[in-house]
Amino acid sequence: MRASAPPSSKPPRRASSTRRAQFSDATLVDLHDPPTRPPVLVKAHQQLDKAIDAACIAAEKAAGHKAPKPGNDAKRVAFRFGRYQALTSVLPAA
Predict the structure, then answer these.
(1) Domain, as residue range, for 70
(2) Is residue 8 one of the residues assigned to a domain?
């Protein structure tokens, strides 16, 4: 039987914190403003959006709802906040 490694006192680094460390001289404005955002962060955000879209679609299908079609950023954000509100609201849906 193999002994397991002792738990680390540090939580695992997330990809976002690892990417942020690569640009320690940049401000958050620099990193989030489309004209100044480094291409590697643009790609990371796109990959994250795809993963979240896939999870949202799967969750909606599993709940028996019509799966949303990923659209532009405005539609994506509106859908995510709508789902967040539905999941966290103490009031029944209208």
Answers:
(1) 17-88
(2) no
